[in-house]
Design a protein that fits this description.
disordered N terminus, 409 residues, eight-stranded mixed β-sheet, eight-stranded antiparallel β-sheet, Jelly Rolls, hydrolase, EC 3.5.3.4, Allantoicase, 22 strands, mainly beta, Galactose-bd-like_sf, Allantoicase_dom
């Protein structure tokens, strides 16, 4: 075939080939538009997922950490678990390029000019230790602000290794990993959410996040139910029955306007107001409340209510009720008029920025608790100290075994 001078020869016809099997796609795929100014979250893609009502088991405040990553050239792996949304400064540049609030790896390259692209299975990885062991119900892989430099696809796996294994132990080929999210295409500048299959909801301690072939991920959120070690709780004897790390969790709250109620059962003291729970100002004659599911069937003996950092917006008073859902006729814990609700702390005066401690004169067995503040305001931490009953300890041990836990692990 000849071509006239000055003209471009036609491209040869593409050869048909089977190619790789197409990957499943998440709710969002493809890049986002370049940032043009204004609110960087204005075009952030997100969706509601029921599992996000459960606590984040990888929360750094619980002890979650990113143990290692195969590459973190542009942005450090630790950003993955930072509380709060990722920040974006369009003018922030450093010697290695754009400074991003996330985990970003360098661009992979092929072996030669004739094959410049990375192989189909090449990827970067990060190892995450959960802050508390538990069952994972869903995850959010948020690529906020990674608009054209996000990974094409991700994979997430989990395993359960007791003690404090390091990267070498976790990367040992003998370790068995369970696929929580199979390799799936995701979108840039999007909160990519994935519910995990029910069959994978076993006790996990560590995760492996893989991004193909490279790119940036701003945040990883791992929502699920904590599963504490019964042997550890038995050794403690008395402990905080509402604490997230001990299996307590928030079921519902009257108001979540300024900050989430789950903050009240995090470890340690609050360092800022938004590290606690704050409600909007009431203009009616009502009050605000949080309802908790406790670590198990238990006997509370003392209450601790911390208004740390709330100086001009602490509640005036607080009261505490408990309910034993195992008792016949107690009623539904979601019904605050149910006959099983018993007041263990009558309305007590609260002071700003203060830890208040109350010994209970008449302890009552419980599975649930309700903290009521009058009329509104902020609570940094809520502690309900006591111990599991023999029945509660037996049920927790049985659940721990059923979900793959081992004694002392």
């Amino acid at each position: 075939m000849t071509t006239a001078p000055g003209t471009t020869p036609p491209e040869p016809a593409a050869r048909p080939h089977p190619g790789p099997r197409p990957l499943p796609a998440g709710q969002f795929t493809g890049p986002a538009a370049p940032y043009r100014g204004g609110d960087p979250y204005a075009d952030h893609r997100a969706a509601d997922h029921p599992f996000t009502a459960l606590p984040d088991l990888a929360d750094r405040r619980l002890g979650g950490t990113v143990l290692a990553a195969g590459d973190e050239y542009f942005a450090e792996r630790e950003h993955l678990l930072t509380p709060g949304p990722a920040r974006f400064d369009p003018d922030a540049y450093g010697p290695r390029g754009k400074i991003m609030d996330g985990w970003e790896t360098r661009r992979r390259r092929g072996a030669a000019a004739g094959a410049p692209h990375p192989g189909g299975d090449e990827h970067d990885w990060a190892l995450i230790r959960l802050g508390t062991p538990g069952t994972v119900h869903g995850v959010v892989v948020d690529t906020a602000h990674f608009r054209g430099n996000h990974p094409d696809s991700v994979r997430l796996e989990g395993t359960a290794l007791d003690g404090a294994p390091g990267p070498a132990e976790l990367l040992d080929p003998a370790v068995r990993w369970t696929a929580l999210v199979p390799r799936t295409r995701i979108g840039g500048h999007a909160a990519n959410g994935f519910a995990t299959p029910a069959g994978t909801r076993r006790r996990l301690t560590h995760l492996r996040l893989c991004q193909y072939p490279d790119g940036g991920i701003a945040r990883l959120r791992v929502h699920g139910e904590p599963l504490p070690d019964p042997a550890w709780l038995a050794a403690l004897g008395g402990f905080d029955l509402a604490a997230l790390e001990h299996g307590g969790r928030v079921q519902e709250a009257s108001d979540r306007f300024f900050s989430p109620p789950g903050n009240t059962i995090l470890p340690g003291r609050a360092h800022r107001m938004d590290d606690g729970w704050e409600t909007r100002r009431r203009r009616d004659r009502g009050h605000d409340w949080i309802r908790y599911a406790l670590a198990g069937h238990c006997l509370p003996r003392a209450v601790e209510i911390d208004t740390g950092c709330f100086r001009g917006n602490a509640p005036g008073w607080a009261s505490v009720h408990v309910l034993d859902a195992t008792r016949p006729g107690a009623g539904d814990p979601a019904d605050h008029t149910a006959p099983g609700w018993t007041e263990i702390l009558p309305p007590a005066r609260l002071r700003p920025d203060t830890v208040h401690r109350f010994l209970l004169r008449a302890p009552a067995e419980a599975t649930h608790a309700r903290l009521t503040i009058h009329p509104d305001g902020g609570i940094a931490r809520f502690r309900l100290h006591g111990s599991l009953t023999a029945r509660g300890a037996a049920r927790l041990a049985a659940r721990h075994r059923a979900l793959g836990g081992r004694p002392g692990g």
